[in-house]
Amino acid sequence: MFALRGCPAGWLGAYGNEWVATPNLDRLAAEAVVFDRHVSDRPDPATACAAWFGGTGTPVTTALRAGGVRAVLVRANHPENDGPDWFYAGWDEVFDARPADADKSPLDALLRLLPDLLDRLGPDFLLFVDIDRLLPPWDIRQDVFEAYVEDDPEEDDDEETEADESDEDEDEDEDEEAETEPLVPEEPVTPWADPPTGPFDTANADAREFLHASFAAVVTSFDAELGKVFDQLRNRGLDRSAAWLLMSDFGLPLGEHGQIGRHRPWLHEELVHLPLILRLPDADQACRRVAGFTQPPDVAATLLDLFGLPAGEGSLVPAARGLADPARTRAVTRLELNGAAEAAVRTDGWACLLPLRVPDGEVREPMLFEKPDDRWEVNDLRGRNLDTAEELEAGLRDAQQG
Which run of H or of E encompasses 352? Predict the structure, then answer.
């Protein structure tokens, strides 16, 4: 299991992104089952941990131990992004592969640890790798960032015009001697490595492009690092004998709806739509896509089912094998954060966002977006579909009171 903290689905090629290079994750997705509509129930790190493993008492790891499965956690994250204390209590062993300042890559420590760790795991094991590579502050390679910085076409046109005028002047004064100043190399444009969590001006298109280019460089570098991890697993034959599960706890807003990071609980696509990719042993069911709604609480039963243990309801293994559709007909999300609260529901045709509490001085109205056409939730259609909006909002209020 790979927990990619802060990974939005929309930044991966498997989920339709066409401009950020993620070849290793694309290969994984091509060998796996991709769950297209995996929506967070609560986009919060601690809540996600509880959802994945069935609660704060980690009963899934307890059930695994009773079934002869060894559960091992690797913290390939910075200490400030650790989970709650209870999360570390249910594992047979916890190993640290923290990013180190002296390393060339934030995942170097994980790559050093894996060979010895894999040697000692035994035949039946759960290996959970917790990674915060996508959370700022980011480690960004300058060359990868520069590959994503686009030249301004208008600036190029101005440079060409100036060049033409310069050529004309040179023709007129070709007999005159010209003094030239030495060329001073331009300072490289550095990436935005530590954007502050908080409000963001959506009208500032240049800042948004700069921010997105920085994050694109992080995603591409991370993909290359994960590729080395995947190679180690393949070299051990674990592509044939093990299931691989890749997921995230929450997405990372990057200015799309007026905020960077988890500043307000505004439950838009970039925060709640998460990757969920399940690679079965020997790439069984490769290239299958599951269109039904899934949510993090489905992971606990799925884990038990993968080990052949009693799973109860909610396992996604039947859907991954094409034997059944996910049971969810909609996905409900709730979040309280920094004095604000919001609930949302997503159905086949709509995404309804309902503010429950808004900080003083701020304005936040209920919204309705058409799905799947308005993927990034740009056009609020509540005013033109008031009956639908009010029905969905009433359901959210009833669920909140319950």
Answer: strand 350-357
